[in-house]
Structures are given as C-alpha cells and as structure tokens.
Design goal:
Number of helices: 15
Distance between the termini: 59 Å
Strand content: 5-15%
Length: 360
C-alpha cells in the first residue's frame, strides 16, 4: 500500500481531535504551531486556549505589551518564541493579514520552513510538506535513512523525500474515506501533514514505538533490519556548559527588588530577584563592596545548588532571603515593587521554582 495512503487511513482511525484543527483561521493555526515548538501537545493546549481567550485575533495580540505576552507565556520556556510571536503579530497587522504563500509566511519572525509549511497547508491548502522531529523519525525508520538529520545534507535529503511523498489530489483522501472535514482540512496535503505528525507523536515514538501494531511494518526498513532504536541519526555537536547563579530575595516592608534581564543572555526580557553571582561576582565580594557585613549575616539560605537543565547549559542556583530593616542600595537596573504585585511580572521557570521556596 502507498506510504501516504497508509498514513491517511491510519489518521482516519487515530488522528487527534485538537481544537486548532477545527478551524482554518491562520491566526489560530499559527498560534498553535508557535506554542507547540519545543512543547508537548498536552502542555501547549491550555496555553493556546488562554491566548485565544485573551487575544482572539492577531490584532488583539499585536496591541498587547511584550510584558503581557511574556507573563501569559510563563512556564512554557524558550521565551524567544513569545517575543517572536508578538513581533510577528505586529508584522501581520502591518501587512493587512497573514501572507498566503510559503515565502511570505517565512518572513514572519519565528516562522521557519516547518511552521510555514504547517500554516500554509492547513490554513491555505498549499502543497508544502512539513518536516519536524516526528517526520524525521518516521521517514528515517521507514526508509532506513542513516544520514544525520542535523546536517545540511540530511535536511535537504529529508525535505526532498517529504515533499515527494505528498498525496497529489483529493481523490487519494476520498479513496480511503479520510474524514478531512472532521479535522477541518480541505486539501490532501493538510490531511497528510497532520497524519504523519500524529503518527510520529503517538505510533512511531522515540522510545517504545508500537512496531507490532504498525500499519507500515511490512515496508519499514528499520523494523526489518532491527535498527528502529538507532534511527534517526543525529550528530552530537552541542556542548553543555554549567553555570552557577546566586539570588537574594530582598524583602523590606512589603516590597521586593527585581530587574528585567537584558538582551544577550538567557531569559531576555524576563524578571529576576537580586542576582549577586553570575560567575564573576561572588557573594563575599558583593558584601564587601556594599558594606553589608552585619546585615548579610541575617540572610536565610532557602535553596542550595538547585539544578535546572536548559538545552545548552546546566544551571545551579542558590537562593537567599534577606529582610533588612531599611532599603539597601541596589545595583543599576533593579527597582522596588510591592510583593503583592510580583505575579504581574513574567519570570523564568527557575525563578518560579525558587520563589516557591519562600512559602515552604
């Protein structure tokens, strides 16, 4: 049986009914794709619904402040996605609407080849194949491809293969009675793209794939050769670095001190308490510089070497509580806010975890 038709038939029985599949509104589709980058569906679903409730149109999102968007995004991580989302919303409004070509969609901030293909096929019926982690895995295993997926050669090879597998016309959907209307997709490309993504997410999974119940088992080279666990291949190029951070939560007469993190480092645009150790300034030096020898002795250590893993680095954080009688002088960029207003400021997940220790 044809590869694409097998997936379409599988999709008919197993496709996930997701809220953004009930519409062809490019805003709703685009929003779901940005949220689901680096995020599992079960986590991203609630965020998508929250964003759609608060900002039901791209014009509404464009009119929001970056702080508002970052605060709504808090907990999803990879905050550059939220900043790109906000920028792209402004681009769309300036254009008078979403671009209707793959090339036009790629011009939006944060939209790459995969996202452009997903939006283009689902919202506009464009014949563009998606290639994401799920697709790489399905194609590498089924066709027995060992070319590393994170190389230029691999990306080209998989992109060409994915495009060549697209169903050519609507008759291929109707031939296997794929209920495209159920998922509100009006073209075979949209149905196929969603089918292969779902297949990779729920059937041909990274660990413990359901090979014995797989409709592609007979034609799967990796299954036949016992190479399922070895594919896809990815070159190891990432060096993970360690970094130590020490934070002081200053509590003074119902207020606390925070700053907005600058550009050029992790968590750009998010807020954090007083950072006194970023690998350059030690606590002892900070105490000496600010003449806090007596007051600092009243600091309470709440967390020590809390481990937090990011894509490119491993962070270890200490967290102190300091309750001076008078406001201390603060480094440049910090400002005082009522503690009751802290929830209004978007913070990284690590800071969120550290703040939880205040009430434990």
């Amino acid at each position: 049986m044809d590869f694409a038709l097998t997936l379409l038939n599988w999709f008919r029985e197993n496709g996930r009914e997701l809220p953004w599949r009930q519409t062809r509104d490019p805003y709703a589709v685009w929003l779901s794709e940005i949220i689901l980058q680096q995020t599992q569906v079960k986590q991203g679903w609630a965020y998508w619904e929250r964003f759609m409730r608060r900002w039901p149109t791209v014009q509404d999102l464009a009119a929001a402040t970056e702080d508002e968007v970052l605060r709504e995004w808090q907990g999803l991580g990879y905050y550059s996605r939220a900043r790109n989302l906000h920028t792209a919303a402004k681009q769309v409004v300036a254009m008078g609407g979403f671009p209707t070509t793959i090339e036009g969609l790629r011009q939006l901030k944060g939209v790459g080849d995969y996202t452009a293909a997903a939006i283009g096929s689902i919202a506009f019926g464009l014949p563009a194949a998606v290639v994401d982690g799920n697709v790489y895995r399905v194609l590498a295993r089924h066709f027995g491809i060992s070319t590393p997926i994170n190389t230029t050669e691999g990306k080209k090879e998989f992109a060409m293969l994915a495009q060549s597998l697209l169903p050519e016309n609507n008759s291929q959907c109707s031939m296997f009675h794929v209920p495209c209307s159920m998922f509100n997709v009006q073209c075979p490309t949209a149905a196929y793209n969603q089918a292969i993504m779902d297949f990779g997410a729920t059937q041909c999974t990274p660990a413990n794939p359901q090979c014995l119940q797989c409709p592609l088992q007979d034609s799967c080279i990796a299954f036949r050769e016992g190479r399922v666990a070895q594919l896809p291949v990815k070159q190891r190029t990432l060096k993970v670095k360690e970094r130590h951070l020490s934070y002081i939560y200053v509590r003074c007469h119902g207020e606390t001190a925070i700053r907005r993190r600058p550009a050029g480092d992790i968590w750009q645009g998010l807020y954090e308490p007083l950072l006194i150790d970023n690998g350059q300034l030690t606590m002892d030096n900070w105490v000496a510089q600010h003449n806090y020898q007596l007051s600092i002795l009243n600091c309470q250590l709440l967390c020590k070497n809390l481990k937090h893993v990011l894509t490119h680095r491993i962070l270890y954080a200490d967290f102190w509580l300091w309750e001076p009688d008078e406001r201390p002088s603060l480094p440049e960029g910090y400002f005082w806010i009522p503690e009751s207003d802290l929830d209004r400021y978007a913070v990284p997940r690590l800071i969120e975890i550290l703040l939880e220790s205040l009430n434990s």
